[in-house]
Design goal:
The structure is a single chain. The protein is mostly helical. 53% of the residues lie in helices and 5% in strands. It is built from six helices and two strands, in the order ααααββαα. Strands 1-2 form a two-stranded antiparallel sheet. It starts with 11 loop residues before the first helix and ends in a 10-residue tail after the last helix.
Length: 202
């Protein structure tokens, strides 16, 4: 009997790259819906943890920046939250979020599985101090945070004139035709932002 080949398992670093790509794709879909709203509807008070689309999506961006800063040893720490509403308008916020998503994707593409064991320092403020975490733990935490609050934004959109977009048509092979156009759009955006396919990070 000829032994069968062992099942091929993609490295964890490849999965995290896929998650970063999913994050960029999900944000593209969500923001395309948000950009059809008026400024008033985007900022309107609604029922959620952060009580507006404006506040929720700004929070996602700030937390993305906070952890990305830690991942690359940027040193900004909690000062990233000094302004909790840096982008009141959806169009400006989308420009900033798209740039952040591409930076995170480039970072994930640069990683090997060995890199995931490397520790980074996270500024938790004077009461906690500096927290040390492995990159392989920080990245899933970031992705879960994004999904958590995007879900809140998605729910709030049911109270607007914009239809909430489908956000789960990504990983299965059967979903490929449903996402191909938007992934192409993301690649085009990436080239226009001159973001490298693989970036060198500390």
């Amino acid at each position: 009997m000829i032994p069968s080949d062992p099942p091929r398992i993609n490295p964890l670093s490849s999965h995290l790259t896929a998650m970063a790509r999913n994050n960029a794709w999900s944000n593209l879909r969500l923001y395309r819906a948000c950009l059809t709203l008026t400024d008033e509807a985007f900022a309107a008070r609604r029922v959620s943890f952060f009580p507006s689309l404006q506040l929720t999506l700004n929070h996602i961006l700030l937390v993305d920046r906070y952890y990305f800063d830690a991942l690359i040893g940027g040193g900004a720490g909690l000062t990233i939250f000094d302004n909790e509403l840096p982008y009141p308008r959806a169009a400006d916020l989308w420009d900033a979020q798209a740039r952040s998503d591409q930076q995170l994707l480039a970072f994930c593409e640069s990683l090997t599985d060995d890199d995931l064991l490397r520790e980074v320092q996270i500024d938790r403020g004077p009461s906690v101090g500096i927290q040390r975490e492995q990159i392989g733990s920080v990245l899933p935490h970031v992705f879960v945070h994004q999904i958590h609050h995007r879900g809140q934004a998605h729910a709030m959109m049911t109270g607007t004139e914009a239809a909430p977009p489908q956000l789960d048509e990504f990983f299965l092979a059967a979903d490929a035709p449903l996402r191909v156009s938007e992934l192409s759009d993301l690649d085009t955006m990436r080239e226009s932002q001159t973001m490298p396919r693989r970036a060198e990070f500390p």
